[in-house]
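Long-time lurker. I teach an intro course on protein structure, and each term I like to show students one example going from raw sequence to a predicted 3D structure in token notation. This year I'd like something fresh instead of my usual example. Would anyone be willing to generate the tokens for the chain below so I can use it in lecture? Attribution to the forum is fine with me.
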Amino acid sequence: MLPRHDLSGNEKKLLETIKDFIAKDIRTHHTIADLAEQFGINRDKLKKQFHQHTGTGLYEYLKQVRLERSVSLLDETGKTVEVIAHLSGYTNASSFIHAFKKQYGITPLQYRTNGLPLG
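-- Reply from a regular --
Happy to contribute to a lecture. Here you go:
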């Protein structure tokens, strides 16, 4: 097994830039290949370093940001689940509800109605 190398300051800055880029446009699913090309980094290196830097993969990070955004929308607006799903980057309410329940153990409507703390 190859020894793990610590990320340089420039590598960390690039990964933070990529995280910010993903978080600013959560309605777009950016592939690893697209991000690697856009930011001038090898795909495998991006995948490995992103996980090393964040503790999660690119897709999981996007899902996490989308769900955090949906919780804010549920808390701060009276928008329907369908609208929140769309604003959070999901193609339909069903996939949003499934992802929300898998992550938090309750549906978005249960969260909004009962105000249950999310784990």
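Some talking points for your students: DSSP finds seven helices and no strands in the chain. The mean pLDDT is 92.
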